[in-house]
Structures are given as structure tokens and as C-alpha cells.
């Protein structure tokens, strides 16, 4: 059986697998995203890969870029061990999805901010000689400006309106429609979803639509999200000693182009003298580029590489 190479982009909304055959043929598939608190990430990743890859298939190299990076060295070792134990794998690279996005979108110095269920940011500076990871930190204590964060604030405003504690009537109405429930059961409905973090994150799109319709509370949530994104960009520029050419690329599945969020980002960028660079590249594009690299280069401090020990 000819060998293959495998690129994986994992975000809160999905697990995307690209397989490259020895003749260069590219095949891509997508599977459901990871929910913290269910399986371990190692178990989840192996399950998704087994849907597409025979364990006996020789894999020359696998690059897994993930929003749900292991939180400790022990968890990373567990993921590495699980992948090597399950698959006929020679070389493995593990990294954040912000790294793959940076590889795809930035050629000079700059920062990529990925707005998905959470937030991930990676900055490259000093003529592409240094690298810095910023923001993120997970939905429990961080990820400010991400889809879960926006969706949670929107739901909080909806529930405040229900109780008469302020909030937004428009957000309450939309939340009940979106989650198919009555105001009195909204909180219970959300808490009992099998993937509550993902479900709350999907409500971010509704919050943004309500803001575009002129609701002041929803607009204030969008404004806060934009401010958080710009704070990350400004911090990255300072860390990297960036000048006027320092690129800021904001992408991800939760960043709708052309709408109120995008417009407000561009407006605030002008005020703060940030250069917003538009890119159509996807994180999976970046993983495929990493797959072609012989060594991690500038990303060496933030990519974990492993070679199977000879028997």
C-alpha cells in the first residue's frame, strides 16, 4: 500500500483531514468538532482519524494543527503516544491552529488572530526571527472576543431581559427562536445541550445580526469584541517591534467579512494605526504548507516534532 501524508486542522466547529497520496492526489473530509469535557483530546483525535485512515496505512508525515492543544506536556505526550500506537506513522508535528493560519496568511512580520469558538493568536516579528503566542487561554478564563464569548454575552443579555435586569428584548426573542424554547426554559435548554460550548458559540452569529439591525445592547457586545481583538493586535505589534508594515490578519469561521464586526475592526484599526491585511487562506491551507516544510523554521519553538524510533 503506497504511503500518504496527512494534514489536520481542528477547530471548535470541525476536524478537517487532508490526505495526500504518493501521486499527489488530495482528499479532504470533515468531522464534528471537539467538545472539552467529553473524551480526552487524544481519544477524540484518534477516533476521527480512524474514520478515514486504515491503521496499517503508512503515513510518512502527519501535521495536526489544533485549537484544542493539549494543556500540559503530559497530555501532549499522551496524544503523541496514541497516534504512534494507532497508526503506521513515521513523523508527527503538533501545533496550534494559529501557527497554521500564520503560515498560510503572513509572509513578513505580523499577527494572525483566529476567531472561532475561541481565540488564538500567533505573532512573528523581528524579520521573522521571533514568534509569540497570545490570547486564547480557553473558554473558562479567556478567549475574549471569540464566538463563545460573544454568544455567552448575548445569552446573558437575553436572560437579563427576561428577569427585568436590563438586557435586550431583541436578543431574548432571537435566543428563544434560535434555541426553540420559551424564556423561562432558555437557561435549562442551553445547559442541557450535549455540546453547550459549541451551541453557545453558534449564537454569536445571531448576536451580530441583531447588532446589524441596530440593537444597542448587541452593538455594545460587538464593540467589546472588536476592542478585545485590537488589544491582541496591538500587544503583538509591541512584542514584535513592529512598524507600519506589521500585518494584522483576522480570520476564522466566526469572523464574518463585510458585516458590522468586520467594519468596526477596520474603523478601529485606522484609529490605532494598525495595518489590516486581508487573506483568503484557510488554516487547512497552512497545515498543508507545514506538511511540505522539511523543518519548522521560525516556528520551531511552538511546533512539537516527533520521529518514530527505529525498532
From TrEMBL:
Residues 78-261 form the ATPase BadF/BadG/BcrA/BcrD type domain. InterPro entries: ATPase_BadF (IPR002731), ATPase_NBD (IPR043129), Euk-type_GlcNAc_Kinase (IPR052519). It holds the Pfam family BcrAD_BadFG. This is Unannotated protein. It comes from freshwater metagenome.
Amino acid at each position: 500500500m503506497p504511503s500518504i501524508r496527512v494534514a489536520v486542522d481542528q477547530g471548535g466547529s470541525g476536524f478537517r483531514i487532508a490526505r495526500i497520496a504518493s501521486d499527489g492526489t488530495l482528499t479532504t473530509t470533515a468531522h464534528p468538532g471537539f467538545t472539552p469535557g467529553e473524551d480526552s483530546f487524544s481519544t477524540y483525535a484518534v477516533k476521527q482519524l480512524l474514520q478515514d485512515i486504515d491503521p496499517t496505512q503508512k503515513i510518512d508525515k502527519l501535521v495536526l494543527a489544533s485549537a484544542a492543544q493539549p494543556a500540559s506536556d503530559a497530555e501532549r505526550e499522551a496524544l503523541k503516544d496514541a497516534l504512534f500506537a494507532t497508526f503506521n506513522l513515521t513523523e508527527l508535528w503538533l501545533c496550534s491552529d494559529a501557527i497554521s493560519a500564520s503560515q498560510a496568511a503572513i509572509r513578513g512580520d505580523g499577527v494572525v488572530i483566529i476567531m472561532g469558538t475561541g481565540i488564538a493568536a500567533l505573532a512573528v516579528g523581528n524579520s521573522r526571527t521571533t514568534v509569540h503566542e497570545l490570547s486564547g487561554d480557553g473558554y473558562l478564563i479567556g478567549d475574549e472576543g471569540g464566538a463563545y464569548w460573544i454568544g455567552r454575552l448575548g445569552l446573558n443579555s437575553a436572560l437579563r431581559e427576561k428577569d427585568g435586569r436590563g438586557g435586550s428584548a431583541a436578543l431574548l426573542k432571537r435566543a428563544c427562536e434560535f434555541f426553540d424554547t420559551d424564556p423561562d426554559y432558555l437557561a435549562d435548554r442551553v445547559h442541557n445541550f450535549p455540546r453547550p460550548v459549541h451551541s453557545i458559540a453558534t449564537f454569536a452569529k445571531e448576536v451580530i445580526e441583531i447588532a446589524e439591525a441596530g440593537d444597542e445592547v448587541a452593538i455594545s457586545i460587538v464593540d467589546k469584541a472588536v476592542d478585545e481583538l485590537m488589544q491582541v493586535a496591538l500587544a503583538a505589534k509591541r512584542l514584535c517591534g513592529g512598524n507600519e508594515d506589521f500585518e494584522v490578519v483576522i480570520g476564522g469561521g466566526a469572523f464574518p467579512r463585510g458585516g458590522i464586526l468586520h467594519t468596526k475592526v477596520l474603523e478601529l484599526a485606522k484609529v490605532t494605526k494598525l495595518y489590516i491585511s486581508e487573506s483568503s487562506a484557510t488554516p487547512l491551507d497552512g497545515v498543508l504548507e507545514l506538511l511540505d516544510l522539511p523543518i519548522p523554521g521560525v516556528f520551531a519553538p511552538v511546533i512539537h516534532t516527533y520521529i518514530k524510533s527505529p525498532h
